[in-house]
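Hi C.,

You asked whether I'd gotten around to modeling the 170-residue construct. I have! Everything is below, sequence then structure, no commentary in between.
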Amino acid sequence: MTVLYESNEADWKLLARGKVDGCSLGRFEDATGLKLMDANGLRNDLPPITTFLNRLLALTIDLQNVLFTAFEQLLTARIEGAVASGTYDVGLETLRAESLVVTDRRTIYDQRGTGAETRLLTVTQRQRNHPPCVISDSSRSTIPANTSKVTSTASDVVRSTPASLSASSG
């Protein structure tokens, strides 16, 4: 299971310190029934993000908007931080190309007991270069937009891209 967002103490501190415009700690606790503070300060057993999101559904639209805006800002900051540090995982991507050819396969991990292996594939991706074209009514010749008459054919662009693939053997 992939965890898209995991709340941490810093997120709840914004509410606890009154740093969310339009929603004080008291208003949040009264509206959601979630208690963030105890006698020692911020509780050690803070609710998970799923509980937070479920409780938001019971709030007024105005208060939902205030809290979702704050939540969105926190999530955006985390994503930007992960992108900047090189730890952001974009997930699955669809590769589109004229052709894709696997040029190398390497097993990079074998799981004992199950026989499952993770393979690193090197893929050559072939793209056709298709310049934007318009048809001239007077000569019926193909003319790329904002250029003069075409004198050569489109060239191929080839790029090698490593891709990982998990497969079960057997």
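If it helps when you're writing up: Residues 1-6, 141-170 have pLDDT under 50 and may be disordered.

Thanks,
B.
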